[in-house]
């Protein structure tokens, strides 16, 4: 286990997965943060949420000479990112669809680390023209390789169903729109957080035992 607490509240890192100027992920993450703050476990102090914004991490394209699996991090930005991720028990990823996949910045941020992700739990809020489901599918595959378990409930937001573009010129490609999630999105998010907290507590023994260390298929 890398630094995450062995007891106490489940610490959930809310990862903002895109970095471009004018990104909608910031508004989505803001809504996620506000909605999750109302979750009973968060209100009771049994779970806490910290935003980890990739735009603030400013990670270059992977520039570590040693693959993350070996845990030999040389760059200050890697160590900073490792400390933040390692302090979390679980993650809530906000990711848009970029060309039927997750943004390169998010894939890069996953690739930087290994042990800090291991044996932890994640949920996903995806968005895009078609709800960002392909980004979610790809992210789940990527997370499987760093031993993150993804809970079953996902929240999908569609640009044409969960954003309101009234007030912006029609066809303006820079119009961010206003996030206006459909009625059932908040309840799906609440269910997802319940799953994250429950599964995360269940996985703590695996996290503590460091079951990923020495996995033959990975170090061979
Ligand atoms: C490079 C790029 C590729 C995109 N590809 C897709 C796509 O394949 N499917 C989709 O539904 N939306 C796609 N979109 C639309 C985005 O999901 C939408 O613009 C979203 O707001 C992007 O997230 P961001 O605003 O946080 O950068 C793409 C957007 C960009 C910038």
TrEMBL record:
GO molecular function: FMN binding; oxidoreductase activity
One GO CC term on file: cytosol
Cross-referenced InterPro entries: Flavoprotein-like_sf, FMN_Rdtase-like_dom, NAD(P)H-dep_reductase
Occurrences of domain NADPH-dependent FMN reductase-like (ranges): 11-159
Domain of life (superkingdom): Bacteria
Pfam family, one: FMN_red
Name under which the protein is recorded: NADPH-dependent oxidoreductase
Taxonomic source organism: Micromonospora endolithica
